[in-house]
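Quick note —
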Amino acid sequence: MELIERGVAEIVPREELIEELGQSINKSHIKNLKAHDHAVMAERCVFRFLITFFQ
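Predicted structure written out below.
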């Protein structure tokens, strides 16, 4: 394990690795937020339709 860590540290500086990880986490988090926003908007549309339809 130590050998692997040393090899990785020599190939890719730790800061770059952390930065890349952070960016990929942020991208997936933003995608999840967008998907959630779309789900909420669709839900509201359905409720509006049902309310106007059954009045």
